[in-house]
């Protein structure tokens, strides 16, 4: 793609870029659709000379953020920055920047630091993820735009599953997904949004509801048959479904949860065989040991951590299972504490609380049909995302583990949670509080 564009005249490229900017200024929601679609199917990435490339997502987000800020300057509307979820998120980003700055001071002697490109990549994950959330929350001004974004994503998800279910279609479907695009949050949000629309959007035609429900069943079938040992593929979506039920229909959720627990209890050997496979047992053992070592490392710099990407180079100072090696935590929350300290983690937890609180309150206020089903799906998606964070660095990919390619899937969580905030603003604009 880059070679093809390089053969174009400079004037044509400038006109094409100008036309694209004008279109996105006119239709900002189109930029979010481009971001979601491009993250999942556009293989474009810039080589860095290391084990990770800069994917299309990180190339696309900065210009989109620039156009968004330009529109805000013209409108003189900065209200999104004063919303309840924005305050802790901005404080979290500020903490990450402070941690980065501290780790690169001449007097920093606590521990070795990562190469500057790795640090900048880690910082970019924090800053750009937050930017995507705020941009989405501000730019989606109509429920229809959220609806288009959701159905485009569900269509891509169904296309991907078709290739996993029918091998002959694989070269035209699944094989088109670049590395990192089908990470844990892809499965989590695909199930969250599809299940909510199928189960709780009573205004959808029956045929459509059945088809969307089929996407949910296909996702679990693929995850439990083709990748059963990969807990990040099916456990967070399962948490998502349970959370959706509790958010929308507690009277149904209670017997379903109890029945599910009884079925699991009566089939303990089978459950253990799935959850505690040899690979998973080894993974759990090493992760617990890694967290123990990280606890000792964090004592060196508890307030602001070690800065983006740096703790990976600190881990070799202490032994893990008798070996002096570098390792990552494979856990979003341990990564946040190690990189931004307890202060950064406190702001992140505050942000999660504000988003969860907003979603839980909006269940009663959202318009029946797509909006209410979306809120339920977003609440379930948030629960599944938090569960995925325990199994890996899926929400804020770590440069030395999931790598920057993981942003292709992690961006979905930030987009669809941002759309939840946008829907709250739309709902209360149309039906202001008395």
Tags for this model:
two-stranded antiparallel sheet, mainly alpha, 17 helices, 434 residues
Structure notes:
With 434 residues, this protein is mostly helical. The protein has one domain. It contains 17 helices and two strands. Strands 1-2 form a two-stranded antiparallel sheet. β1 (45-46) and β2 form a beta hairpin. α15 packs parallel to α17. The longest helix is centred in the last third of the chain and has 34 residues, at 332-365. The radius of gyration is 22 Å and the shape is globular.
Overall average pLDDT: 88
Reading the helices and strands in chain order gives HHHEEHHHHHHHHHHHHHH
How large is the radius of gyration?
Answer: 22 Å
Number of domains: 1
Q: Span between N and C termini?
A: 54 Å
Give the biggest sheet.
2 strands, antiparallel
Poorly predicted runs of 5 or more residues: 1-8
Class from secondary-structure proportions: mainly alpha
- The geometry reads as globular
- State the strand order across the main sheet: 1-2
Percent helix among the residues? over 70%
Q: Strand fraction band? A: under 5%
- The DSSP helix count reads 17
The number of E-state strands comes to 2
How would you briefly describe this protein structure?
With 434 residues, the chain is mostly helical. It has helices at 2-6, 10-26, 28-41, 56-75, 86-103, 116-139, 143-165, 184-200, 206-226, 231-248, 250-266, 268-275, 278-298, 311-314, 332-365, 370-391, 407-430; strands at 45-46, 54-55.
